[in-house]
Amino acid sequence: MRSLLVLLLLAVANAKIFERCEWARTLKANGMDGYYGISLADWVCLTRWESNYNTMAKNTNNDGSTDFGIFQINSYWWCNDYLINSHNGCNMDCSAFLSDNISAAITCAKRVVRDPQGISAWYGWQYNCEGRDLSSYVSGCGV
Ligand SMILES: *[C@@H]1O[C@H](CO)[C@@H](O)[C@H](O)[C@H]1NC(C)=O
C-alpha cells in the first residue's frame, strides 16, 4: 500500500501539462524558434493539437504504433517502445518522451523536422496550423 502511494506520487510528479506561454518560452529556450525555418508559433500550434501541451499524452494508432508525449512522436519511425519493430530514428526509448524533462522530446522533434517532409510529418500541424494566422499561439507570452 505504501509502495503504491509512492508510485502514484512519482507518476504525478513526472507528469506535466504546460501552460501555453510557459511552453512557448521553454521551446524558445531550447532553440526551437526558427529551427529549420519553423516558427515558434508553429511549434506551439503543433503541440496544442497533438497533445494539448501534455507531456504524458500517449495514443495508439491503427497500425499498432504509438505516439508519445507533448510532440506525439511515433514509435514506428522514431523511438523504441519495445512493442513493435521500430526504425528508431532518434535512437531513444519512447518512454523518455513522457517526462516533465522535455530535453529528449525536443532533441527528437528536431531530428524529425530535419527529414525531407519536415513539419508536415505532424497531421496535427497540417490540419490545424498550416497556412493559418498563428499569432494567437504566442500572443502575450513575451517571446
Ligand atoms: C533531462 O534529461 C537529459 C537527458 O535526456 C539530461 O541530460 C538532463 O540532465 C536532464 N535534466 C534534468 C534537470 O534532470
UniProtKB/TrEMBL annotation:
Example GO BP: defense response to bacterium
Family statement: Belongs to the glycosyl hydrolase 22 family.
A Pfam match: Lys
Record organism: Neolamprologus brichardi
Segment forming the signal sequence: 1-15
Keywords: Antimicrobial, Bacteriolytic enzyme, Disulfide bond, Signal
Annotated InterPro entries: Glyco_hydro_22, Glyco_hydro_22_CS, Glyco_hydro_22_lys, Lysozyme-like_dom_sf
Gene Ontology molecular function: lysozyme activity
Glycosyl hydrolases family 22 (GH22) domain: residues covered: 90-108
Name the UniProt record assigns to this protein: lysozyme
EC code: 3.2.1.17
CDD domains (UniProt xref): LYZ_C
